[in-house]
Amino acid sequence: MIKARIVVTLKNGVLDPQGKAIGGALGHLGFDGVDEVRQGKVFDLQLDGDDKTATEKRLSEMCEKLLANTVIENYTISID
Amino acid sequence: MIKARIVVTLKNGVLDPQGKAIGGALGHLGFDGVDEVRQGKVFDLQLDGDDKTATEKRLSEMCEKLLANTVIENYTISID
């Protein structure tokens, strides 16, 4: 069993309306000094097998095919 | 300027239909051996100031008030 975490975030320069809305909401709640908020996704996976190298390669394929829109998003993979 | 990352994930035992759907989709794409997928949110923030302790306290308040539903979600805060 392998545990892995994938974090998908917007590339720099890509507009993040959701992040902007959250930043605004934080301001309305009285949290000043928040310059920027950018929201992304995190996936925690449990996978069969124990070959970390092979698993990392498969996780990358999963990102390329489904979990990330690589035109506008970056992804990082970390394996426990 | 302080940079921080907040990761919000579902508590153990809380059903994650989105994660289940993603796991199913990965299976249809030919990725077998994926036992579990759980999806969460990540927030990257840039904040004024340089007092990390005070900032961590404010970030925790932000989570409690807006960024996380603490009934069903956990959050972790990491400051660069």
From TrEMBL, chains A, B:
GO terms for cellular component: cytoplasm. Gene3D superfamilies: Phosphoribosylformylglycinamidine synthase subunit PurS. It is found in: Cytoplasm. GO terms for molecular function: ATP binding; phosphoribosylformylglycinamidine synthase activity. Keywords: ATP-binding, Cytoplasm, Ligase, Nucleotide-binding, Purine biosynthesis. Pathway: Purine metabolism; IMP biosynthesis via de novo pathway; 5-amino-1-(5-phospho-D-ribosyl)imidazole from N(2)-formyl-N(1)-(5-phospho-D-ribosyl)glycinamide: step 1/2. It catalyses: N(2)-formyl-N(1)-(5-phospho-beta-D-ribosyl)glycinamide + L-glutamine + ATP + H2O = 2-formamido-N(1)-(5-O-phospho-beta-D-ribosyl)acetamidine + L-glutamate + ADP + phosphate + H(+). This is Phosphoribosylformylglycinamidine synthase subunit PurS.
